[in-house]
Every structure is written in structure tokens, then in C-alpha cells.
Amino acid sequence: MTKKRLLPPELIAECAAAHDLFLSKKNELKLSQKKIADEAGITPAAVNLYFKGINPLNAKFAAVLARMLDEPVSAFSQRIADEIAEMTRTPAKAVVSGGASSAEKVMEMIRKHAGKSLNVDAQEKIAAVALEAAGETQGKVIQADFSGLKAKPEEIVIRQYDVRASMGHGQVPSDYNEVIRNLIIREDVLREKGVTYTSPHSLAMITGWGQSMEGTINDKDPLIVDRGVNEYAGDGIYVLTWHEHLFIKRIQFLDAERFLLVSDNPHVRDQEARIEDVTVHAKVLLIWNARKA
Fold first, then answer.
1. What pTM does this model have?
2. Does some domain include residue 181?
3. Tens of pLDDT along 2-27?
């Protein structure tokens, strides 16, 4: 079995510096890996993978960690600090044309310049307007007339997501059809169901396909997914690519090198996959099973 490639020494050093800074301040600030994980929208296990130097630090996690430690990102990663500084110097249209991480870049810029003067909800609304104005949704969210969708303050508009256009290397059946084009849902309904998400603007509707998850997700079942989850964040069901094919699978963490891709249909064999071969595009949060009365 091919072993997972080790990170370069400089990236391992960043992880170690972040971990050391966390250890030095956690008692003073009453922090834990779980608190950081909750703030970042990932699991404590995922935080541990950063601190252990198994996964490289990224701008999103670094920004959360720096904010919670009350330290600049440069205290543990000058590389990421330079990346963030470069983002703030780049014209907005150029920043938002960069793909799946554009929302994170815009949010980082807003947080840097607005600081605590805007609450999280206000920051996300500004980011959503900026992204839409710059064409971030083109080719990803199905274009439709949303003028008749008037969400109340306690509601969320969830748009249909074009899996084929946005998830790159995946392959989907030729008869793949979207079932629900858009949805307005009350936030308290999601809370009652125990659904948590990285951001309201990261929620999207897609339609399940195939039989591998039958019993949990059936063919043509509408799904609410969180596009803000782009890495393993604990056991759950994910939209992912593996060897250039698109799947909806339950991911379980086997060890530092391998995931187990689980098919809930007992007639479909589970498969082991090298972590480095799996790209996570979104996490499935809620399945809308339509059943005849």
C-alpha cells in the first residue's frame, strides 16, 4: 500500500507553530480543540490533523485560529499571512473569480477591514452581494428568477446547485435531473433537526443519483448540502470525487492514510481510498425523501 505523502518540512513547521501557540494560550483563553472546531465548522479530529501536521494549514482555518487566539496569522504562518495580504490588495473582481474558495477570500477581506463593527450575519450578507455582483454564481448556481422568493429574516433561500458544472472532474448519469430548483426554509426547522452549517450562503440543493446509498438516499432524492465543507469533518455523508468520478458516499476515517467510502446499500461494496485521492466538495446535511402517501 502506498503511504500518504508527508508534508514538506516548512508546512509541518507551520502546523507545529500553530499547535504550540494554541497550547500556550488555551488556558488563558479557555480554549479547546472542540471550540476551535465548532468555530471553523469542522470536527475536533480535523483540527487535530492540522495540529499534528497531517493536513496543511489553509487560509480559512488559519483565520479562525488567529481570531480565537487573538494573534496575527503571521505568528504561526507567514506564508498564509502573505496570501491573505495579497487578497486584500487584489481588485474584488479578480478575487471572486478564483473558484470554490472565493467566498472565503471575500469574507476574510470583510473581517479584516470591518473587524467587530459588523456581526457575522451582516458580513455574510455583504459577501453574498459582492460574490453575486462579480459573477461568482455563474456556472454553479442554476440561474432562475428569484424575484418571487421573499425570505423573511428568519428564513433562508437555498438555491439549486449545478453539480456537473461546479464539481469538476465528476461524472454523473446522462439522465441526471434536478428535482427541486429552489427552496425557502426557516432556520429554526434546521435547528430542530440538529442541522448545523458553515454559512447560510453555503447551503445548496442537489439531487441524489444512483443506488449505492439506497435506503438512506434514493435515486432522485433532493438533498441540502453545505458547500462550505471542503474537507473531511467527521463521519458523515459527503459529495466527493475519487479517481475522477463523482460520488455521494459516507466517509469514515480509518487511519492517517485511508478513508473508508461506505455505501449504505448492503449490495454495494465499501471501498478503501487514500486520503490524498479524495476531494470533498460538500457535506450532505438533510435528505428530503419524497414518499407516496
1. 0.50
2. yes
3. 445 688 899 999 999 999 999 999 99
